[in-house]
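Why show two proteins at once? Because comparison is the fastest way to build intuition. When a single record is shown, students tend to memorize it. When two are placed side by side, the eye starts asking what differs. So, the first record is below.
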Amino acid sequence: MHHLDLQVIRRALDWSRDGHRVWLCTVLRTFGSAPRAPGSLLAANDEGEWVGSLSGGCVEEEFLERLGEGAFVEPVNQLRYGDGSDPRSRVRLPCGGVLEVLVENLPADDATRAHLDFLEQALDGRRRLIREVTVPEGGRRFLEDSGQGPRVECAPRRIRIRVGAAQRLLLAGYSSVAEICARYALPLGFEVLLCDPREEVIDGVDLPGVDIRRELPSEVIAAGACHADTAVVALTHDPRIDDLAMIEAVRSDAFYIGVMGSRQTSEKRRERLRRSGGLSDAQIARIIAPIGLGLGSKTPAEIALAVLADILRVRNGIPREAL
């Protein structure tokens, strides 16, 4: 399933190829209640067609109304919705939230199409990029992105937006902790993939919205299921599942790799992976074990919370010592 922002860019690219001017809107910052995260996209064309979402309704209506009145002729605009501080905005959000939006006016030319094509590649998981937009000139360029950190960074004359595939959580094997991780991850915006070949374990598992595959996680990973926006977690306590998944995961581009177990169990696993799995010290260092934040978790729900919190920490570029 392709996420909404990828659909937005593909539609915008089609419009541009058909000769239409495109306005590309990006959520920059949110304060208080906001249904769409920074980096979320909406696009509209010069015939009033649109795709995507900024707020779930009210902001979109106001933006499209103003666009129809001939607004946003400049290369870029930065708008603030919700608190009345921006005289160009006629909307106060009923939820009490505030969001800032970047609006880019993109002509139907080769440069625009090349830019949108790079965006499509990034959102499709083929590469990770930082998109830099200068304000107020509207200059655009891409930088390679090899790290983790805030989705959007705003400076007085420059905006940088991280662009990548939809965040994916690959659960290597089913367990009570894995089930709760799946349920937590979906509302956080993750695509969730659960892999387990054990029919006696997976039979009857019902997780709406989760892609369940009756295959060895290691085989799924080796087949290319992990891109640079994937977190791989093994939560079964079964070395046949967990160890093989780790061996393949460290050879992938996954940004987070973790496996459940005590400190003693984790040390034994490292030795197995080094001796039998043939992994180097650098590869083993990529594995977070014991997995998750040290919250004193005991129950499956508490462990799942610690795991997802640690994934979010890494995704946002926050070192453990900064917590």
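Second record. Ask yourself what differs from the first in the token line.
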Amino acid sequence: MGDERHTSTQGAANAPVPHRLKAEFREPPAMFEGCFTTFYHLSLDIDAGGGRLTDHLQPEWANIRFFCGGGPEAEIAGTRVSGARFVGTGPSSLPCRFTLGPVRMWGVGFLPLGWARFFDADARACANIICDGAAHPAFTRFAHLTEALCDPEADLEEQYAAIVAAMAQAMRPTRDDARIMRVHTELVGGDHASVHDLADACAMSIRTLERVCVRYFGFSPKLLMRRQRFMRSLTTFMLHRGSRWTEAMDDHYHDQAQFTREFREFMTMNPSEYAALDHPILTSFMEARARVWGSPAQTLDPPHEHG
């Protein structure tokens, strides 16, 4: 994706904030198949006097992000970070509100298989948290990457190589690899009406399904199914500017009232409130991701190699 110039309407009197956003997506090597959503680099430039931009990330899988320049002010549920160069987030079912100034950032998104292979903690213990990654025991193993990814003398190829080398050194298989892939595949590509149906499709007991989901996905199977349905609707809405929520709603919602309840639970606001907000970073990023990567959001990525 090349430079794209945008104008948001944030600020004291809804004054325009001209900014340029550039996102580049790098394919993880084949040895990591199923572990990552993508490695991506984001450049945000804001015109002099433009201040900072505020946006809301939707629910997603776990991430590590390295900020060169000003770090973010960000919060998920009751957890907050301010100015950290290395930020870790667990899998989320709630939005992340963040404010960001001019910055260069590397991001690595971990699919559930990636969580299993790179983290020692239960995903549920890290669900809906954002933290200074250098200070949290689940994320500290990646803190050394800050030096390479925030080195102004290093180019993107060198920084990408540093990520690959660090991940190759840290990765280890687990006994649940096949189960994780099966559950993830069914969550993204299946059309299951109940947890029982999902367990049958995965050829495992409900108890085993619950264990795998909580340990590596961060949430119960039922909540994961609801989050998947919600994210399909939200991304459809955001990629079709000017569309109505009724046009974006997933077929599994009985009516708009049910969708509104789900929206409030996952985004902590009504659909109309969300639609009225400016999304200076997220909309552009999702459009670029859909165009380049084929999927607008992490939660919609299947657990197999892109090609």
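One difference worth noting in the second protein: Residues 4-170 form a domain with the Jelly Rolls fold (CATH 2.60.120.10).
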